[in-house]
Specification:
With about 575 residues, the protein is of the alpha+beta class. It is built from 26 helices and 16 strands. The longest helix is centred in the last third of the chain and has 31 residues.
Length: about 575
């Protein structure tokens, strides 16, 4: 696990300032992701940098390069099918006590079989292989976007990329958050892919332009394996690590199934459960039951409002506003795991999106086929009924169900172009057959919710604690096994229920989903420094806010006439990011 960047030196030479200083600044911006080593390699027209968190082959270095001077490579993440690929690419490596650094695999595969071989890589990764002889670089990324990648394109051609926006900006990338991204942030809690666009320049969180196929996790298979076998294999691959292994165990369905599978494979690990002080402990009790049943050690992580204190630091590292507050709970857990020497943690992310496990998926199926305007809906309410009624009137019902703030908050407290709402994914929400609706929901979840919200959250939280997060549910075998089923066959996590119902307590499958949520509604009704931030004159003068409307929202929330904890958090998170930007530019 690392932070990496790559830039064409010809691009850098045209930018103001000293090129060497820019490279050094980019590397410094990534050091929070990997404190074991930091190095830059100049290679033809390319400069490749890596701040490394050493998981495999800790004696090695990155970037890696061949002695002939033609090839150099760097990798962020892990190749979970490394053993199989080493058997093909370098059989002698298997005789070693530990496998070589995974970064060698993409280099050797491209050297032996060409860049199309990068499609054979599995697992969460971004890798670059630069060929000085041909003046080409090849970049590959895992298909779900587990590992971050921000790309700078000039007239459509990629000239630089980096694991974080601060690193990319150090390499000369311009940045001006589009109004539609800001609108999405306050509606949905995430920005989306596009971060800057001008006549010749684009900055986005996507791979387009390198011409390399994504990893084989999305390649079709004539005969996908059964789901239970696929998940078993995915857990085994993700757990195949020499470093100390742990897991996130909320007590919910996804993580409990992973705990059961690790137990079945005789892997006993420390399982970390987060509980916000003052919240019900039933999920913790289930987590303790599951951990004991499969021989894991449950580690309890408790936190109050002090969890919010990490937000400025995480925001400064990431360089973008963090709209999902559960990043703070995940960071508290990852930090506790790191203190115990854990280097790799398994997570249940990706299950709900592929197996339609959210309440909004069931609500979508109940939507009428006709779009209807319902003026009696409360514009301040975020209750289940109000959200569903607003979705009925929306052009894209599923995008409306994803909204985390009410319309009255947008109109009263925010001063953002309402016309620049921006779709959360390509296409318009389906109102037809049930399968068609769920396929659209899966597309939105994959293109927007997973890539722009959940996966960056996990990456930032774990990397800031120097821990690697791995998601077995996003393994290619699992994805193909699920894709072979109809959406209705997957609804409500039916495949998981079928595979693990006999192995887990019944209460695991009967409970309401909570995960690592923070009680923001309750916290914003108490004494909270974030409220002082919202009332600060500097905040109130921001162009995107209406001060009187924000005051009204705070009053409505604190008098319990509305539940606006998430909306107030988003304003605070955006303000923290703006102040980070102000400090960066000072």
């Amino acid at each position: 696990m690392c932070g990496i960047f790559g830039v064409r030196r010809s691009w850098l030479a045209r930018q103001p300032g000293d090129a060497k200083a820019s490279l050094s600044s980019a590397l410094d911006a990534l050091r929070w992701r990997g404190r074991d080593e930091a190095r830059i390699v100049l290679h033809g027209d390319f400069a490749i940098g890596c701040a490394r968190l050493a998981i495999s082959d800790r004696r090695s270095s990155q970037p890696v390069s061949r002695r002939d001077g033609r090839w150099v490579a760097a990798l962020n993440g892990a190749v979970t099918n490394a053993r199989a690929l080493w058997a093909d690419a370098l059989p002698a490596a298997l005789s070693r006590r530990a496998l070589p650094n995974d970064a060698w695999l993409p280099l050797l595969l491209v050297q032996a079989r060409g860049p199309a071989a990068l499609a054979d890589l599995r697992g969460h990764h971004v890798c670059v292989v630069a060929d000085a002889a041909r003046d080409e670089w090849h970049v590959s990324r895992d298909p779900f976007g587990e590992k971050p990648l921000f790309v700078l394109r000039e007239r459509g051609e990629p000239v630089a990329f980096a694991s974080t926006m601060p690193a990319l900006r150090a390499l000369g990338a311009p940045f001006s958050l589009p109004s539609e991204a800001t609108q999405r942030f306050f509606r949905h809690g995430a920005l989306g892919a596009l971060l800057h666009r001008s006549a010749d320049i684009e900055v986005a969180d996507e791979l387009r332009g390198f011409g390399i196929p994504v990893a084989s996790d999305t390649q079709p298979s004539a005969q996908p394996m059964p789901f239970a076998a696929a998940l078993q294999r995915a857990v085994a691959r993700c757990a195949d690590v020499d470093a100390k292994l742990g897991m996130f165990l909320s007590g919910g369905i996804d993580s409990s199934c992973l705990a059961a599978e690790l137990g079945a494979q005789q892997r006993r690990v420390r399982a970390y459960q987060f509980l916000a002080k003052g919240e019900p402990s039933d999920e913790r009790e289930l987590a303790a039951d599951v951990a004991a049943r499969f021989g894991h050690e449950l580690v309890r992580v408790d936190s109050g409002t002090e969890a919010l204190d990490a937000l400025p630091m995480l925001t400064a590292h990431w360089g973008l506003p963090l709209g999902d507050p559960s990043v703070l709970a995940a960071y508290a857990v990852a930090r506790a795991a790191a203190a115990d020497g854990i280097r790799v943690m398994l997570s249940g992310e990706g299950s709900d999106e592929q197996m339609f496990g959210y309440a909004r998926h069931r609500a979508l199926l109940r939507m009428p086929n006709v779009r209807m305007s319902l003026p009696f809906v409360s514009n301040w309410s975020m209750g289940t009924t109000s959200r569903a009624l607003r979705a009925i009137a929306a052009e894209d019902p599923y995008a409306a169900l994803l909204e985390v703030t009410p319309p009255a908050f947008w109109s009263d407290a925010l001063s953002i172009d309402g016309a620049a709402q921006g779709a959360v994914a390509s296409g318009v929400g389906a109102r037809g057959a049930r399968d068609e609706r769920l396929r659209h929901a899966a597309k939105v979840d994959r293109e927007f919710y997973l890539r722009s919200d959940l996966l960056p959250k996990l990456d930032v939280a774990t990397m800031a604690a120097q821990v690697e997060g791995r998601c077995p549910f996003l393994d290619g075998d699992v994805a193909r096994a699920l894709d072979a089923m109809s959406p209705m066959q997957r609804l409500g996590k039916a495949p998981l229920r079928s595979a693990y119902a006999a192995k887990l307590p019944h209460a695991v499958f009967a409970q309401r989903k909570r995960g690592f949520a923070l009680p923001l509604d309750r916290w914003f009704r108490g004494e909270l420094p974030m409220l002082d931030l919202l009332r600060d004159q500097r905040t109130r003068q921001r162009a995107h806010l209406r001060a009187t409307g924000l005051d009204r929202a705070i009053d409505l929330h604190r008098s319990r006439r509305a539940d606006l904890g998430r909306a107030l958090y988003l304003v605070a998170a955006f303000e923290i990011w703006l102040r980070t930007e102000d400090a960066r530019c000072a």
